[in-house]
Design goal:
By secondary structure, the chain is of the alpha+beta class. The protein is built from nine helices and eleven strands. A hairpin with a 5-residue loop joins strand 4 and strand 5.
Length: 297
Amino acid sequence: MMQPCNYRQAVRRVTKLRHPNLVTLIGVSPDTLALIYEYPPNGSLEDQLGARDTSNHLSWQTRICICADTCAALMFLHSCHGMVHGDLKPGNILLDSNFTAKIANFGLHSAPSHFPSTGELSFASDVYSFGYVLLRLLTGRSALNLDEVMQNALDGENLSGVLDPTAGHWPFEQATELAHLALSCRDIDSDNRPDLASQVWPVLERMRTEASLSSRSGPEEPSQPPEHFLCPISNEIMRDPHVAADGFTYEALEIRRWLSDGHDTSPMTNNPLSTLDLFPNQALRSMIQEWRQRHNL
């Protein structure tokens, strides 16, 4: 379990992060030392890959975009903030209304660090996990031996036999290149894994450009603000969101007015607040500002 001091550091760190491919912190749970993130409408990549009984499957074009989005988020964490995700998997990749990928459960590790049960936790370990995400997107399978399955398919020139048919007709050259890229990320020797910025990103950026030429346009962004943009007290779009000790995010003016009126309890739960300190949620503030600009508000 995370220690309280580390938890406070994580809250301060995550509220300052803003990237289009990272979910935004909207609250905290001090009692359980948990971080509460937005939950985009299309759920997790794991949910989408497991929905075999629906007709709304992820196309190969969308899957390539998800690969690129995830790579961009990892590069941001690694290069700009020295953070290791440490638990990258389809369940921690969420999809918004346009199926843009957003990584969740980040900000808990700094590199280099050590994870006793699996060895060293590093940028290279994130690359290894990213390779697994690529294999899942290619095959749609959740088997533990996907590395072996893919390598055997490439050696036997039977790649089409392991590609997920619900994604549509993968361009063979792109699928082959993506398969080799995934396996290189999964190299047992961490020194042989590719560098995200110089070796992986250029490939995925080119693939995404090519995929966009044949992909259909996605759904329009909803005109109504997401619920977590609204202050729980005033029910209006926040301009200066702050996280209180109860874990909820409020408009700074509203929560300060509540506290200045002599309240030492949560406006939402009526339970006593462990502290009257407030943390500015800079990431959510930036997200709201961008939404306002897009809607001319």
